[in-house]
Design goal:
Structural class: alpha/beta
CATH architecture: Alpha-Beta Barrel
Shape: globular
CATH superfamily: NADP-dependent oxidoreductase domain
Number of domains: 1
Radius of gyration: 19 Å
Oligomer: single chain
Number of strands: 8
CATH topology: TIM Barrel
Order of helices and strands: EHEHEHEHEHEHEHHEHH
Distance between the termini: 37 Å
Length: about 290
Amino acid sequence: MKKIILGTAQFNGKYGVSNKNKKFNFGEIKKIINYSLKNKIKYVDTALSYFSDQRIYELIKTKFKISTKVPSLNKIKKNQIKSYLKNYVINLRKVYSTSKIDSLIFHNPDDFKIKNKTKARLAIRYLSYLKKKNQIRFIGVSIYTMKDFYNVVECFRNYKLDLIQIPISILNNEFNNKYFINITTSKKIKVQARSIFLQGLLLMKKNERPKYFDKWKSEFKEWDNLSKFHKVKISYNYINNLKFINSIVIGFFNYDELKFFFKSIRNKNIMTKKLFFNNIQNSKLINPNLWKIK
């Protein structure tokens, strides 16, 4: 079983097409965190923008290794990059009560577009300096597409990219290609999988999916006949069996979902070998940024 990282984007109640809670209460979050620890989850994926409740930071900062994010640099001027990142990392260390951030990930891949290359390299250079000073363990980038990956690799030329976080699922296979695998393997870049249930879409019943997805009813027909146990197990196993994936970021909308997840993946009687969704490449389906949902 690959290393599981607890995702916390759901804690703000705004993430995921299948999210019905919209707002978490602290008691529910506390149960999720405690159950995760009980099941030997040692890493948490988070960001200062995900939630503002100081009690959550108090819960996670001493119990997990922290993977957190650098916000978009879009509004930061080139001559302000160093001071901005310096102050931002100081604040992170204060919030998480640590002298060293385990993983610091650029959150917006647009920061690495060709037009932003100079600014991106200034940011990479400074974070690499902080890494040498032992304030950061790993530097990474969260991306959405292969085009993002090309841009990131170019900007990190002559610098060490430690990890890359990608959306990948049984429905979205864009990154399961030779180029991506060869580059990440040869450069020893760790790959974190996220959105393995495609923001919950893969676990929804057909009558629960927004009307936007009706145009793909035929693609989902066989999948819709499966139980939720099967959907969780098959989705997880597909990612778990990809050799180039090092860890999996998974978030939960409530405590019951977390328990259901572990019960499903540990069930040895569920069929998982059959392939579903025959290599769909429609970005309007597999890329949540393009979904037109009210």
